[in-house]
Amino acid sequence: MSHLRRLQRQALLVLKRGFSTPAVTSLSKDEKEFKNFVADFAAKEISPKVREMEEAGRIDQNLVKKLFDNGLMGLEIPKKYGGMELGFFLTVLSIEEISKVDPSVAVLTDIQNTLVNALMMKIGNEEQKDYYLPKLAKYMVGSFGLTEETSGSDAFALKTTADKVGSGYVLNGSKMWITNSDLSSVFLVMANVDKTKGYKGITCFIVDRNAKGFSVGKPEKKMSLKASGTCSLHFDNVEIREDRVLGEIGQGYRYTIGFLNEGRIGVAAQMLGLAQGCFDSTIPYLLDRKQFGSPVYDFQGMQHQIAEASTRLEAGRLLVYNAARLVEGKKEFIKEASMAKHYCSQLAGYITRKCIDWCGGVGISTDLPQEKFFRDAKVGTIYEGTTNIQLNTIAKLVRKQYAKSEE
Ligand SMILES: Cc1cc2nc3c(=O)[nH]c(=O)nc-3n(C[C@H](O)[C@H](O)[C@H](O)COP(=O)(O)OP(=O)(O)OC[C@H]3O[C@@H](n4cnc5c(N)ncnc54)[C@H](O)[C@@H]3O)c2cc1C
Predict the structure, then answer these.
(1) I need a labelling partner for 20 at 20 to 30 A (CA). Which of 82, 90, 150, 384 fits?
(2) Residue 81 in contact with residue 134, Cβ under 8 Å?
(3) Which atom of ligand 1 lies at the shortest distance from residue 385's CA?
(4) How far does residue 126's CA lie from ligand 1's centre (Å)?
């Protein structure tokens, strides 16, 4: 059969059956159920605590326990270790739903699931998995420590050293901006075992909070994600046993690149959820608020802006779900992940600004959620790779694509 005939037959089948490939954003029954479960959890358990946690500058311990009890901190961990054994797409859905209510809580679950658990599951040896995964699924919060005072975007210029002493290693140096570190009991830390090898000396170490010589600084005071603890870490001759090296010596840079590529889809989902949460809290107000005798939603000048915002939200969701489904399908996803992260962090800034404008004066009141969403949105263009770094990645891959097609 010719190529054209085959295409015609397929088109006829689609017409007869009345369906084609499902939309990237359409959810299966199980996906819908899970999304509703997380949305219910967020409404009941997170929503009443948002302001209190924001003011206290920390996440409520009872809430952390409930996140664990409901499986939301061990989403992809296999059942045999006490996890939910769900896929990456559902992890992304969960981050989006939580972020609609509180992006600070979302980042707690995001780092735990997409970086700490993922590294332990995929790189850890059997003994490490047996020891850490049941704890990470049930009660142990973890952090991922890469950034330092002098190495942010240029992450592999890190200065923390790990010198081989006897059968183990001794860590010296410090890290900055480490999410969850106020709560974490375990830290996956990148340090260099041999500076002469440059980035090929970077190795991942498992550091327990109570390790001698290890200390955690005070949480940074910041404009975004105030409840999420972001602290510095200090290593002063911290002795690490050889069996606490995660993965292979000198492969830390490779793990970092790989896992941050996936992790940034989590940040994209966080920004998407935040934008949607802000939009959802705003539209009912616009339908209700009257000026010049009619709801402010009814003015065409408003409607065009709302339509534009709604279109961009849909575009953001397509990018995020597509990138997450590519990961789950084990397809190439790096460019799509960077696009999703870049687009959704801009989207969050745009939507939250618009929502505040549409609400008028009350938009900047701390009685309404818009101003918090607006502040929280700012961090999206910075962490897990700034906007420029995402654009660098996208441009590099576009160049590669065209260079290939010229061959
Ligand atoms: C709230 C928060 C939580 C964080 N959590 C963690 C965590 O859990 N673990 C962790 O390891 N890190 C964490 N980070 C660190 C974060 O990943 C870095 O802040 C981020 O990678 C940017 O690094 P930097 O802040 O040093 O900025 P810099 O790298 O100093 O960048 C400054 C500016 O220069 C631009 N720039 C730099 N290089 C280039 C380039 N090559 N091309 C074009 N422009 C460039 C950047 O885009 C940016 O605009 C967190 C940060 C924040 C704010």
Answers:
(1) 90
(2) yes
(3) 21
(4) 33
User: 338-361 as b/e, with b when 16 or more CB fall inside 10 Å?
Assistant: bbbbbbbbbbbbbbbbbbbebbee
For residue 104, the model assigns a pLDDT of 98
The hierarchical CATH code for the domain 143-252 is 2.40.110.10
Q: What is the mean pLDDT of each run of 10 residues along the chain (407 residues)?
A: 77 72 92 98 98 97 98 98 98 98 98 98 98 98 98 97 97 98 98 97 98 97 98 98 98 96 97 98 98 98 98 98 97 98 98 98 96 98 98 97 75
Please identify, by atom number, the ligand 1 atom nearest to the C-alpha of residue 145. 11
Q: What is the pLDDT of residue 21?
A: 81
Contact assessment for residue 226 and residue 104, using Cβ atoms and an 8 Å cutoff: yes
Q: Which residues are part of the catalytic machinery?
A: 384
Take residue 315 and report the two structure tokens written for it.
């575009």
pLDDT at 43: 98
Residue 382 Cβ contacting ligand 1 at under 6 Å:
yes
Is the distance from the beta carbon of residue 247 to the nearest atom of ligand 1 less than 6 Å?
no
User: What Cα–Cα distance (Å) separates residue 24 from each residue in 88, 157, 317, 324?
Assistant: 15, 38, 9, 10
For domain 254-406, the CATH architecture is Up-down Bundle (1.20)
Specify the fold of 23-141: Butyryl-Coa Dehydrogenase, subunit A; domain 1 (1.10.540)
CA of 10 to the centre of ligand 1 (A): 48
Where in the chain are the domains? 23-141, 143-252, 254-406
